[in-house]
Amino acid sequence: MSRTDASVLHVDLDAFYASVEQLADPALRGRPVIVGGLGSRGVVAAASYEARRFGVHSAMPMTRARRACPDGVFLAPRFDAYQDASRAVMGILRSVTPLVEPISLDEAFLDVEGARRLSGTGEQIAIALRSRIRAETGLVASVGVATTKLLAKLASDLGKPDGLLVVAPGTELEFLHPLSVTRLWGVGPATRRRLERFGVETVGQLAELPEESLVGALGASLGAHLHALAWNRDDRAVEPEREAKSIGHEETFPRDLTDPEALAREILRLSERVASRLRKASRSARTVQLKVRFGDFRTITRSSTLPASTDLANDIGRVARELFDRVDTRSGVRLLGVSVSQLVEGAAVQAQLAFGSEEPSPAASSASAAKKPSSSWSALERAVDAVRDKFGDDAVGPAALADGHGVRVASGGSPWGPVGEPEETR
């Protein structure tokens, strides 16, 4: 799709996680805030601009961030709060155009070509959106405006923080060619080193190379891809129907875990978070996947597909625990993750899923559902959602996650208690 107007916008919320935390607690405003895993193996997920002055940046090991900014405020992520803030911003964007493509919680592309008649030029729309986002959510957005997604993304990056950068039609290559080649999608450290052998440091220098030379050096797919981007050949449309294909959560531990009870608690905790995110997204899922990373960084995944979709931690946790029981973890576990896929719209069909050493057939599950309805679990977990929405994530939870409460479960059992008899919450 060739455009003659700058009608593609890339909206990027500045220091998103840290900004949400500063809005929630006014005492944090103006202070260096670092969000991420707090253990010795954690990494920085976001850093406020006050923290960035100390050299702290995302993906930095948390131990390095603490040394660089010892007076910083270090916080564990609160994904529910970030999702709420993201939904508010995406709602503002969709009030201008239905052509909004979320890329993550804190960024999205917009196609405003059809909105220009009512709302003005791409630049005018960007100005209005930045103003509305700040006024209605308190968050700060940087926006790039261009004729392609490539340039809109680059413009928003270069406009940070709190900036608006427009690449006017006809000036695309003038804007693009002086930039470092590392700005292009697909140029990581290994590709950069290969390009340096050709004396390539800028996008313009890359554009001067024959496509055949790039294909020979980088392979057919990457070589052709980078040659096209170097000449701003990017016909990708804004795709508003993009949806998450999976929902998951994982945790890296400060030290390797070998205690089965401690690991069972973590599976429960992760399953609760995943189920809560499913329900907030009005989704249910059929496939549960367990991810285990050992102390030597060897990583395995195990999955199981259910006969019916679910959005309950009770169901997800049971399957994740069964998968976990088949893994030898005596050498120590560095990371655990639980995720779900095969997502479907709407809440789960409320039929109790039967779990055991053998996967039940749909017919067997239907027969079991008549005997063991899961409506009590559904009611319980949705009641917990309501309490947490009102009083915070730590207001209520399974007794198995209470301090000092172990999870002693035989293989194939569940830390959530017997079917139809939900464990007490605190």
Protein described:
It contains 16 helices and twelve strands. With 426 residues, the chain is of the alpha+beta class. Among the domains are: 54 residues, 5' to 3' exonuclease, C-terminal subdomain (DNA polymerase, domain 1, Orthogonal Bundle), CATH 1.10.150; 156 residues, DNA polymerase, Y-family, little finger domain (Dna Ligase, domain 1, 2-Layer Sandwich). Helix 11 crosses helix 12.
How much beta, percentage-wise? 15-25%
Which whole number gives the mean pLDDT? 83
How much is the radius of gyration in Å?
A: 24 Å
**By CATH's scheme, which homologous superfamily of the domain at 246-401 applies?**
DNA polymerase, Y-family, little finger domain
- Per CATH, the class of the domain at 246-401 reads Alpha Beta
Gross morphology is globular
Strand order of the largest sheet: 5-6-1-7-8
Give the low-pLDDT segments.
Answer: 350-373, 402-426
Main sheet specs: 5 strands, mixed
CATH topology category name of the domain at 246-401: Dna Ligase, domain 1
Total beta-strand segments = 12
Supply the number of helical segments: 16
SSE string, helix = H, strand = E?
EHEEHHEHEEHHEHEHHHHHEHEEHEHH
From the N-terminal CA to the C-terminal CA, the straight-line distance is: 56 Å
Task: Label the CATH architecture of the domain at 246-401.
Answer: 2-Layer Sandwich
**How does the helix and strand content classify structurally?**
alpha+beta
Helix content: 25-40%
